[in-house]
Amino acid sequence: xxxxxxxxxxxxxxxxxxxxxxxxxxxxxxxxxxxxxxxxxxxxxxxxxxxxxxxxxxxxxxxxxxxxxxxxxxxxxxxxxxxxxxxxxxxxxxxxxxxxxxxxxxxxxxxxxxxxxxxxxxxxxxxxxxxxxxxxxxxxxxxxxxxxxxxxxxxxxxxxxxxxxxxxxxxxxxxxxxxxxxxxxxxxxxxxxxxxxxxxxxxxxxxxxxxxxxxxxxxxxxxxxxxxxxxxxxxxxxxxxxxxxxxxxxxxxxxxxxxxxxxxxxxxxxxxxxxxxxxxxxxxxxxxxxxxxxxxxxxxxxxxxxxxxxxxxxxxxxxxxxxxxxxxxxxxxxxxxxxxxxxxxxxxxxxxxxxxxxxxxxxxxxxxxxxxx
Length: 373
Ligand code: UD1
Description:
Radius of gyration: 20 Å
Number of strands: 13
Largest sheet: 6 strands, parallel
Shape: globular
Helix content: 40-55%
Bound molecules: uridine-diphosphate-N-acetylglucosamine
Mean pLDDT: 96
Number of helices: 18
Low-confidence stretches: none
Oligomer: single chain
């Protein structure tokens, strides 16, 4: 299994522990080192009890080609040494793509977890990663019926596609219970007051001064005009750019609480009691939906369109006006949580990880894990 970025640690934690407990399977985790800060990596291994990686390639940051290239070189070396029967790659990050390409060129079957999601925006690095990974994978584990139909529409053979549900939902279900123990809300001093949670990290939002500045303006206005607390656990990339563009003081003067990234359990607890979530993350759009908290997404499209169609997620891009206007409208709608709670979950029943492992076991025992010639 190739992992490297925060969302991958979360979405595979149950698959990893199930595989780890199977005496007939040997799980080797290879961490690419894409995420290297403790708050984006180590914290999640500890909290979610993910087995220690066999190796950390330590590739760190860089341009897309530098980062992906360094990963491919390291992964090829490791795969030649380990000679795995299967390489599992989750999600849509550069680590996913590097693992899929390195393995498929060595003729090792690739299994993609979270396959078939499409945002239809090829300017997003993750969309490129998703499509390329899917097309060089032998087993594609789709999280929803829509993802399954996307794969069919791209001509992928039926016997390669497995609709299993979303492994992230499995982890969400298990961790929500554990998150009741989190003191995140009291530790942040929010007490019983109403608040909004914000996360922003996409290059399209945070690498451009004007985009980030529009988002910051909307958050400060939201805090000033509604009186709600605004809590903003910021990704290191975002923190760096807030400083680079001299925007952090504007947020702080506007009393927006910019904090360092937090762990999964603290984040779940914080989101669960929020009035509204504002994000550009993929995973958080679904978590908000599962928690019945309205979500405002700072993008123009999403690879999770079911959340929008079901009236739980609003795509507002990064215009200051539309962020503020939509947030205000949603905050004054008192029946919204109730409406979201009535929607059935298109992302499975919480047993996706079990299905992934059982499909792998069956394929392995039937000798089906071989690449087509
Ligand atoms: C990556 C994924 C994105 C995922 C996100 C979750 C790709 C293309 N993107 O984006 O899909 O939603 O992870 O967080 O793979 N940095 C640090 N410390 C770290 C890691 C990164 O400071 O531990 C900073 C560096 O300045 C780096 C920048 O963040 O240049 C971007 O990091 P990178 O891993 O390339 O992409 P993410 O934005 O984290």
